[in-house]
Amino acid sequence: MEKKNKTNSATVKKETMWLIASIALVVGFLGGVVFGVYKTGSDKPIQKKMVSQPAEKDQGASVERAAQIFQLEKIVKENPKDFASWTSLGNLYFDNGDFQKAIAAYTKSLELNPNNADVLTDLGVMYRRAGQPKKAIESFDKAAKVDPKQETALFNKGIVLMHDLNDFDGAIQAWQELVKRNPAATSPSGQSIKDLVERLKETKKKQ
Questions:
Q1: 136 vs 64: CA distance, rounded Å
Q2: What pLDDT shows up at residue 10?
Q3: Which residues of 27-38 are buried (b: 16+ CB within 10 A; e: fewer)?
Q4: Quick one: CA dihedral 124, 125, 127, 132, positive or negative?
């Protein structure tokens, strides 16, 4: 379940003292994993022929990425039903940290191909980064429903439930569902999800 972490620095919102204490007790085991949500492996390499001049509004991006964005924006404008290009554009916005544009691009991709679990998962990450955790959960749930093998969605759901919505029990349930689907599931850092769930249960009992 190795995924690319796109969270530069995740900030935990104000939480109850109980949750803060719980995190303190398990942080050694978690290794910081639960503070970030993860991107799927949906990135597609952009063909060199698609590279053109960068858009002025993408000055913060690398020259290559800005050029790719510029060209993809042109492609989807000319062919708005090209869901693959919408997805690639969303991925580039994702990497750029442009949450709202990534959300818009992924949404267009899903209008054309609604059962793409990777795009649904990445959309959820962008919603979370944009400060919309409930929409993130909705997107993760859709991804897990359309593809039972989409483990990242369930892992990320637990992250958002615990750290953004203060729902400790909900996080445990999400990760239990992940273990049910794949008993050998691990976090992106290699931690056993099954062990994580058991330790969180033990932590809760001590509160």
A1: 29
A2: 30
A3: eeebeebbbbbb
A4: positive
Neighbour tally for 161: CB within 10 Å:
23
**What does the alpha-carbon distance between residue 112 and residue 77 come to, in Å, rounded to a whole number?**
15
> Which candidate, 118, 112, 157, places its Cα nearest to that of 134?
157
Is the CB of residue 118 less than 8 Å from the CB of residue 44? no
Q: Give the C-alpha distances (Å, rounded to integers) separating 98 from 83, 91, 127, 148.
A: 19, 10, 11, 29
What is the per-residue pLDDT across 58-84, written as a single tens digit (0 to 9) for each? 455 478 889 999 999 999 999 999 999
96-150 pLDDT, tens per residue? 889 999 999 999 999 999 999 999 999 999 999 999 999 999 999 999 999 999 9
CB-CB contact of 90 with 121 (8 Å): no
pTM above 0.85, yes or no: no
Query: End-to-end alpha-carbon separation of the chain, Å?
Result: 31
Question: What SS3 state is found at 203?
Answer: helix
Cα–Cα dist 2/152, whole Å: 9
Q: Is the pLDDT of residue 7 over 90?
A: no
Q: Which of 106, 143, 103 is nearest to 126 (CA)?
A: 103
